[in-house]
Amino acid sequence: GIGAILTVNNVGRRTRATQATMDNVSFAIETMVREMRLGSVYKCGIHGTAGADTYDCPSGDSSVAFKMSDGTTVAEYHLYNNQIERSDDGGLTFDPITSPIVKIDDLKFYVSGSMIGDKLQPRVIIEVDGRITDPKVGAQSFVIQTAAVQRAIDQ
Question: Which residues of the chain are modeled with pLDDT < 50?
Protein backbone atom coordinates (compact mmCIF):
# COMPACT_ATOMS: atom_id res chain seq x y z
CA GLY A 1 0.00 0.00 0.00
CA ILE A 2 1.33 3.31 1.24
CA GLY A 3 4.84 1.95 1.97
CA ALA A 4 5.26 0.84 -1.63
CA ILE A 5 4.14 4.24 -2.94
CA LEU A 6 6.62 6.02 -0.66
CA THR A 7 9.43 3.69 -1.75
CA VAL A 8 8.68 4.27 -5.45
CA ASN A 9 8.51 8.04 -4.85
CA ASN A 10 11.87 7.93 -3.02
CA VAL A 11 13.48 5.94 -5.83
CA GLY A 12 12.13 8.42 -8.37
CA ARG A 13 13.61 11.37 -6.47
CA ARG A 14 17.02 9.65 -6.22
CA THR A 15 16.95 8.77 -9.91
CA ARG A 16 16.20 12.38 -10.89
CA ALA A 17 18.98 13.68 -8.61
CA THR A 18 21.44 11.17 -10.06
CA GLN A 19 20.45 12.15 -13.62
CA ALA A 20 20.90 15.87 -12.90
CA THR A 21 24.36 15.23 -11.45
CA MET A 22 25.44 13.03 -14.36
CA ASP A 23 24.13 15.71 -16.76
CA ASN A 24 26.64 18.09 -15.14
CA VAL A 25 29.49 15.62 -15.72
CA SER A 26 28.37 14.93 -19.29
CA PHE A 27 28.18 18.65 -20.08
CA ALA A 28 31.71 19.21 -18.72
CA ILE A 29 33.13 16.34 -20.78
CA GLU A 30 31.23 17.33 -23.94
CA THR A 31 32.57 20.88 -23.61
CA MET A 32 36.14 19.57 -23.34
CA VAL A 33 35.72 17.27 -26.33
CA ARG A 34 34.14 19.99 -28.51
CA GLU A 35 36.96 22.44 -27.74
CA MET A 36 39.63 19.79 -28.34
CA ARG A 37 38.14 18.70 -31.68
CA LEU A 38 38.29 22.27 -32.94
CA GLY A 39 41.69 22.99 -31.37
CA SER A 40 45.30 22.32 -32.29
CA VAL A 41 48.84 22.13 -30.79
CA TYR A 42 48.02 19.58 -28.09
CA LYS A 43 50.26 18.71 -25.18
CA CYS A 44 49.73 16.91 -21.94
CA GLY A 45 51.47 17.32 -18.64
CA ILE A 46 53.99 20.01 -17.78
CA HIS A 47 56.23 19.45 -20.80
CA GLY A 48 56.98 22.53 -22.92
CA THR A 49 54.93 25.68 -23.37
CA ALA A 50 51.14 25.42 -23.62
CA GLY A 51 49.92 26.49 -27.06
CA ALA A 52 53.43 26.49 -28.56
CA ASP A 53 54.82 22.99 -28.01
CA THR A 54 53.26 19.60 -28.70
CA TYR A 55 53.78 16.56 -26.50
CA ASP A 56 52.33 13.06 -26.76
CA CYS A 57 51.70 11.08 -23.60
CA PRO A 58 50.87 7.43 -24.31
CA SER A 59 50.89 6.69 -20.55
CA GLY A 60 48.45 9.50 -19.79
CA ASP A 61 48.64 12.62 -17.66
CA SER A 62 46.25 14.59 -15.46
CA SER A 63 46.42 17.78 -17.56
CA VAL A 64 46.11 18.77 -21.20
CA ALA A 65 46.60 22.10 -23.01
CA PHE A 66 45.88 23.16 -26.59
CA LYS A 67 45.20 26.15 -28.80
CA MET A 68 41.51 26.83 -29.20
CA SER A 69 39.84 27.30 -32.59
CA ASP A 70 40.63 31.05 -32.65
CA GLY A 71 44.31 30.07 -32.99
CA THR A 72 45.53 32.22 -30.09
CA THR A 73 43.64 31.35 -26.88
CA VAL A 74 45.25 28.50 -24.95
CA ALA A 75 42.86 26.25 -23.01
CA GLU A 76 44.02 23.90 -20.30
CA TYR A 77 42.17 21.28 -18.28
CA HIS A 78 43.40 19.54 -15.15
CA LEU A 79 42.31 17.77 -11.97
CA TYR A 80 42.51 19.77 -8.76
CA ASN A 81 40.82 19.12 -5.44
CA ASN A 82 38.63 16.36 -6.95
CA GLN A 83 37.22 18.68 -9.61
CA ILE A 84 37.92 19.20 -13.29
CA GLU A 85 39.16 22.73 -13.78
CA ARG A 86 39.51 24.81 -16.96
CA SER A 87 41.75 27.72 -17.85
CA ASP A 88 41.54 29.88 -20.95
CA ASP A 89 44.52 32.10 -20.14
CA GLY A 90 47.32 29.58 -20.61
CA GLY A 91 47.07 28.11 -17.11
CA LEU A 92 47.32 31.31 -15.05
CA THR A 93 43.85 30.94 -13.50
CA PHE A 94 41.50 27.96 -13.31
CA ASP A 95 37.78 27.59 -12.64
CA PRO A 96 35.96 24.35 -11.77
CA ILE A 97 33.63 22.99 -14.45
CA THR A 98 32.16 20.13 -12.40
CA SER A 99 29.68 20.41 -9.55
CA PRO A 100 31.02 20.22 -5.97
CA ILE A 101 28.87 17.13 -5.34
CA VAL A 102 30.78 15.31 -8.09
CA LYS A 103 34.16 14.08 -6.84
CA ILE A 104 36.62 13.23 -9.63
CA ASP A 105 39.09 10.67 -8.28
CA ASP A 106 41.15 10.27 -11.45
CA LEU A 107 41.39 12.22 -14.70
CA LYS A 108 43.72 11.09 -17.48
CA PHE A 109 44.43 12.55 -20.90
CA TYR A 110 46.22 10.39 -23.49
CA VAL A 111 47.54 12.52 -26.35
CA SER A 112 48.81 10.97 -29.58
CA GLY A 113 49.67 12.30 -33.04
CA SER A 114 50.36 15.81 -31.73
CA MET A 115 53.61 16.28 -33.66
CA ILE A 116 53.19 18.14 -36.95
CA GLY A 117 54.26 15.95 -39.84
CA ASP A 118 53.99 12.64 -37.96
CA LYS A 119 51.25 11.54 -40.42
CA LEU A 120 48.88 10.88 -37.49
CA GLN A 121 45.72 12.84 -36.83
CA PRO A 122 45.98 14.38 -33.31
CA ARG A 123 43.79 12.57 -30.79
CA VAL A 124 43.07 12.97 -27.08
CA ILE A 125 41.52 10.12 -25.12
CA ILE A 126 39.90 11.25 -21.86
CA GLU A 127 39.26 8.96 -18.90
CA VAL A 128 37.24 10.18 -15.92
CA ASP A 129 36.79 8.12 -12.75
CA GLY A 130 34.57 9.69 -10.11
CA ARG A 131 31.65 9.47 -7.74
CA ILE A 132 28.52 11.35 -6.83
CA THR A 133 28.47 12.46 -3.19
CA ASP A 134 24.96 13.93 -3.03
CA PRO A 135 23.28 13.01 0.30
CA LYS A 136 19.91 12.73 -1.53
CA VAL A 137 21.33 10.05 -3.81
CA GLY A 138 24.03 8.32 -1.80
CA ALA A 139 27.48 7.49 -3.12
CA GLN A 140 27.54 6.27 -6.73
CA SER A 141 30.68 5.66 -8.75
CA PHE A 142 31.13 6.17 -12.48
CA VAL A 143 33.82 5.73 -15.14
CA ILE A 144 33.66 7.57 -18.47
CA GLN A 145 35.99 7.27 -21.45
CA THR A 146 35.74 9.31 -24.63
CA ALA A 147 37.97 10.63 -27.40
CA ALA A 148 38.45 13.86 -29.31
CA VAL A 149 40.10 13.83 -32.74
CA GLN A 150 41.26 17.12 -34.27
CA ARG A 151 38.76 18.11 -36.94
CA ALA A 152 41.24 19.94 -39.20
CA ILE A 153 43.44 17.70 -41.32
CA ASP A 154 46.91 17.40 -39.76
CA GLN A 155 49.68 18.90 -41.87
Answer: none
Q: Please, how many CA atoms are within 13 Å of residue 142, restricted to the half-sphere of its CB?
A: 17
What's phi and psi for 120, nearest 5 deg?
-120, 135
pTM for the structure as a whole:
0.84
SS3 labels along the chain: CHHHHHHHHHHHHHHHHHHHHHHHHHHHHHHHHHHHHHCEEEEECCCCCCCCCCECCCCCECEEEEECCCCCCEEEEEEECCEEEEECCCCCCCEECCCCCEEEEEEEEEEECCCCCCCCCCEEEEEEEEEECCCCCCCEEEEEEEEEECCCCCC
Taking the mean position of all CA atoms in its chain, how far away is CA 16? 23
Q: Quickly count: other Cβ atoms within 10 Å of residue 145's Cβ.
A: 12
Residue 110 to residue 144: CA distance in whole angstroms: 14
Distances (CA, A) of 54 to 20, 65, 117, 148, 149: 36, 9, 12, 16, 15
pLDDT at residue 23, rounded to an integer: 85
CA distances to 58, 91, 142 from 118, in Å: 15, 27, 35
